[in-house]
Amino acid sequence: MPATHFRTCTLCEAMCGIRIETDGDAVVSIKGDDQDSFSKGFICPKAIALQDLQQDPDRLRQPVRRTASGWEKISWEAAYDEVAKRLNRISDQHGSKALGVYLGNPNVHNHGNILFSLPLLRALKTRKRFSATSLDQLPHMLANLKMFGHQAMFPVSDIDRTDLFICIGGNPAASNGSLMTAPGMPHRLKAITARGGRVVTIDPRRTETSALASEHIFIKPGTDVLFLLAMLNVIFEEGLDNSGHLKKHIEDLDLVKLACHSYTPEVVEGPTGVHAHDIRKLAAEFANTPEAVLYSRIGTSVQAYGALCTWLVYCLNIVTGHFDRRGGMMFTLPAVDMVAFGAMAGQSGHFDKYKSVVRALPEFGGELPSSTMAEEIMDAGDKRIRAMVMIAGNPVLSSPNGQQLDKALASLDFMVSIDMYVTETSRHADIILPPTGPLERSHIDVVFPMVAVRNIVKYAGPVFEPAEGSQHDWEIFLNLARRLESRDVASSVMARARFELMHRLTPDGMVDLFLQLGPYGRLPPGSKLWGNAAGKLLDLLGKRTPLRKLLETGPLLRRNNNAEKNLSLNRLRNEPHGLDLGPLKPCLPERLYTKGKKIRLAPRLYLQDLPRVADLLKSYESHAREPLDNSFLLIGRRHVRSNNSWMHNSYRLVKGKNRCTAMIHPEDAERLGVEDGQSVTVTSAVGRVDIPAEVTDTIMPGVISIPHGWGHARSGISQKTAQAHAGVSVNDLTDEMQVDPLCGTAVLNAVPVTLMPTDKRRVKAA
Ligand SMILES: Nc1nc2c(c(=O)[nH]1)N[C@H]1C(S)=C(S)[C@@H](COP(=O)(O)OP(=O)(O)OC[C@H]3O[C@@H](n4cnc5c(=O)[nH]c(N)nc54)[C@H](O)[C@@H]3O)O[C@H]1N2
Ligand SMILES: Nc1nc2c(c(=O)[nH]1)N[C@H]1C(S)=C(S)[C@@H](COP(=O)(O)OP(=O)(O)OC[C@H]3O[C@@H](n4cnc5c(=O)[nH]c(N)nc54)[C@H](O)[C@@H]3O)O[C@H]1N2
Ligand code: SF4
Ligand SMILES: [Mo]
What we know:
Elements: E1 2-8, E2 17-23, E3 26-32, H1 50-55, E4 64-67, E5 70-73, H2 76-94, E6 99-103, H3 111-116, H4 118-124, E7 129-131, H5 138-148, E8 156-157, E9 164-168, H6 172-175, H7 185-194, E10 198-202, H8 208-211, E11 215-217, H9 224-237, E12 250-251, H10 253-259, H11 265-272, H12 276-288, E13 292-296, H13 298-301, H14 306-319, E14 329-330, H15 338-344, E15 351-355, E16 362-364, H16 373-378, E17 387-391, H17 395-398, H18 402-410, E18 414-418, E19 431-433, E20 443-444, E21 454-457, E22 459-460, H19 473-485, H20 489-517, H21 528-540, H22 547-553, H23 569-573, E23 579-583, E24 599-600, H24 604-622, E25 631-635, H25 651-654, E26 662-664, H26 666-672, E27 679-683, E28 688-695, E29 703-705, H27 720-724, E30 751-757, H28 758-765
Parallel strand pairs: 6-7, 6-17, 9-10, 9-13, 10-11, 12-24, 17-18, 18-19, 25-29, 26-28
Antiparallel strand pairs: 1-2, 2-3, 4-5, 4-19, 8-14, 15-16, 20-22, 21-23, 25-30, 27-28, 27-30
Helix pairs in contact: 2-19, 4-19, 5-14, 9-11, 9-12, 9-14, 11-12, 19-20, 20-21, 21-22
């Protein structure tokens, strides 16, 4: 029977509303939902590929076990029993430190995974946790924690109301925006210039976003920290700083002044490649435009100075009065307020409470840097990881030195993957547990509304009933956790009671609690009903709190003065196109989680890292600036038809021109005798790949760009379309030893490599 369903695309952060026509168990079409309260019909080409994901014959629908003769289908019961038995045995023999977990990106697109992974993580009882965070937004979360007191208090660029959008190290026209959730980025960027505003991009590549911008400034990869210090320097030197309504709520402004004191535009001009005049002009324009914002992303955070860059970007917005203010950086007030409840559950975040074994790199939020995963498996002696639980991630392609991780995973005593494909990573698993797909479960975004440019909320039930005997991720988590806990008699009674409760509640039930308790919710904070419900929620989050205490803190939860005060899951069931809860509003200093409700402008850990910047500057001064003929800095790239490592099995997304290429400037190409399309060999400290060159003047001389997520030619994966469009993995070049030493984030941009035409290398070798 034909039917129409409305929901949200789960592939990237943009939260586009989609309209799915089905007939029986087949998807007939996927289109943009014109009536969606947020996206108004916009989608990108990836949304349609949800259909391919749903119908993909390569997708696993039942647990499999690796045997000498290939993958063997097994029952869920047998799979759970075996996984629990193997993990328990290893943990009994070697302690729970022998168990590791990796959590990949799709977890954040799935409310069941976000809300129900805790019991499994607890049952594993290990500190050897890794995730895509340390390949991504860790520097932002660290700055949130250190400056605002809560790791999830992300300031969001108010792109729809700004007159000057300066974008450094992000490409929202291709990525559709990150830590700035809004569907239809190209339209929003065009709207800025259409209303007389300006868009400026600062990037080693003239990107798809630059094509929509008013001005593009090339910058040498990895030197942003110098550029940002110089921007600050101009602002202070010329007396352009004015933090407006936040003036009284800022600590340590003088220390920031001191930090940038010697970094004049003239000093940084050489190393950054940005004219001093352009820096002065941009700094003044930024300070003098009332509604302006400086936005930064992957290019500035996932590099050697990522933590410093992200801190400086926040500082620049704050000291120019573009913070907590219309058109600048603002905070959301989401319907599912995980920030407030996280804080109530004692989970505002922590940093450097313990360290990795081999390299002593700091944890963040209970996770170790992913760059340490291979060595923690291979080189940590008695403390090594012997078994891994991989949840919705593909670190062999997504984390640095994938070849080494490949070897490390192959050496494990046991590995289980929770994934719907046999991937470059899950091929190492002894057992793969495949969850239901995105159309077979209910959906409500709980993470991205925290970083959205408007307050929005939307819920949808499943499009298709899950096939008989299939399991959601959250059911897999609970079923495994129950078995892992059951050998510990004392904790198992309590644990079993909690599992029963959670099973009955389901993630939807937990979301309903969040909604009713939250800032738009049905239950007024501080009322007895509210207190009881909040107690239940915090109990599930593992923090038993007396009612009295809850009733005290309840009213501190900010209520909105918005019309919507009756939110619950039932109410949302009647709003298939979602609810718009209004634009972002100023909320500081009340919402700060720091002591004394001050913004800590100059946390000591950043100041202590500044000598490294002085060294960077010196290294440029002492260098003969003429680079060796074939040495380059490697940067990353995203394309609107590619989604990290895992949507390349959709033919409609990979067909046409090969997108896994090394972009190189025509001058460099000519000097090295490289022609467009010709194979080049790129070599780094850890590896080598052969890849077609794409000669283009959109990239700076001395820089090459290769996208990540490719490299499907490794043996033993079962994704036929991806294998036929394999590409190579850029993370066979990135180096796990190169991290931002301040926080352990991987260095995936500005990686030193050499390049030469592949056939010349062969001739040389012969
Ligand atoms: N060089 C370089 N490397 C990068 C980056 C870069 O810019 N440059 N970017 C980094 C960034 S920002 C990120 S976020 C990471 C991403 O890296 P990862 O999170 O490690 O990998 P993904 O490619 O997102 O792979 C997701 C896996 O989850 C599976 N999956 C999809 N949906 C579900 C689901 O609902 N449940 C379960 N259980 N599994 C599911 C897919 O089949 C796939 O195998 O890559 C990082 N790596
Ligand atoms: N189509 C598509 N969309 C996606 C994804 C995807 O894989 N495909 N992944 C999603 C994920 S997980 C994330 S985290 C977001 C990321 O979202 P974005 O951060 O917007 O991601 P990128 O498109 O990689 O943009 C990074 C930009 O930084 C530039 N850059 C590289 N090195 C430097 C440097 O040293 N300095 C400066 N100033 N710039 C530099 C690159 O040229 C590039 O233009 O995208 C999300 N959206
Ligand atoms: S931009 Fe594309 S992938 Fe991202 S949510 Fe929208 S339709 Fe999905
Ligand atoms: Mo990401």
